[in-house]
Amino acid sequence: MGMVNEKTIFTRIIEGELPCYKLYEDEHVIAFLDIQPLTRGHSLVVPKEPAPSIDQLSPTYAEALGRALPPICRAVMAVTGARAYNLVQNNGREAGMSVPHVHFHIIPRYPESTHSFLWEYGEIDSTDASKLAESISEAMD
Ligand code: DGP
Description:
By secondary structure, this protein is α+β, with helices and mostly antiparallel strands. It has a single domain, classed as 2-Layer Sandwich (HIT family, subunit A), CATH 3.30.428. It is 30% helix and 18% strand. It contains 3 helices and 5 strands, in the order H-E-E-E-H-E-E-H. The protein has helices spanning 9-14, 59-80, 126-139; strands at residues 22-25, 29-33, 43-47, 84-88, 104-109. Strands 1-2-3-5-4 form a 5-stranded antiparallel beta sheet, covered by helices on one side. The protein is globular, with a radius of gyration of 17 Å. The structure holds 2'-deoxyguanosine-5'-monophosphate (DGP). 2'-deoxyguanosine-5'-monophosphate (DGP) binds at residues 9, 18, 20, 32-36, 44, 90, 96-99. The site of 2'-deoxyguanosine-5'-monophosphate (DGP) has 14 residues, from strand 2.
């Protein structure tokens, strides 16, 4: 484990210290190809702010990230020919995050793609759900 304030690999890419296959860059956001692609065209969209999880991202960078995502998705789909894709965003080691710097994965899906995301769902409990929704709604800052 590095120190909290140690630069992430993505900050080093943003600062030009490490190379990448760059797709897009503006003042707040960079996008490049993932070097461990699940499928061809697997891309990462990264805010330049080094927030370790999305709940810690500032409004300015969140807005820029949200704005950049649709056109980058469109370009990846247009060039790869994929007609479906997953947008995946992990937060925290237990959630599968290996680089603690906010990033969205754009993962194109092809007819021959075999990857899967484990999704074993249960049933919603209506008593708990109403309390839960109310509590989360009240917790919004
Ligand atoms: P996650 O598990 O959500 O933290 O995904 C991190 C992704 O980053 C993973 O798919 C591999 C990719 N990755 C790690 N190091 C590098 C790097 O140096 N360059 C690029 N382009 N991608 C990287």
